[in-house]
Amino acid sequence: MLLTVRIAALRPLTRHHPLRYGRRLAEALVTRSQHSATATTERTAAANEAVELYRRLDRDQPDRHRVGLARALVAQAAVPDDRTLSSTVALTCEAIDHLEDADDRAAVVVQAEARWLAAACLHATGLVRDALVLAYQARASWLRSEPSGVADRVALVRTLILIGDCRAALGRPEEALAAHQEAMDRYRAIPLLRQGRWAAIRFPAAVALAESLAAVGRWDDALALAEQFHLELDNKLALRLKPLWARQLLGQLLRVMASCQEELGEPEAARQAAEEAVDHQRCLAEAAAPGHEKGLAEALHTLGTLLAGAGRRAEAADRLTEAVDVAREADDDDDILSRALLSLAEVSLAMGERTAAEPLLAEVVSVGRMHDEELPERWRPRLVSALTLTCRMWAIEPLPAEMEPDAVDRGLAAGRESVELARKLASADKRYRELLCNSLVHLEDALDRAGDPLGGIELLREYVAIRRDLFADDPEDERLDLAEALGALGERLYALDRLDEAADAEQSCVALLRDGGTEIPPEALATALRELAQTWHRLGRTAEAERVAAEAAVIESGVPVD
Question: What is the pTM of this model?
Answer without folding.
Answer: 0.85
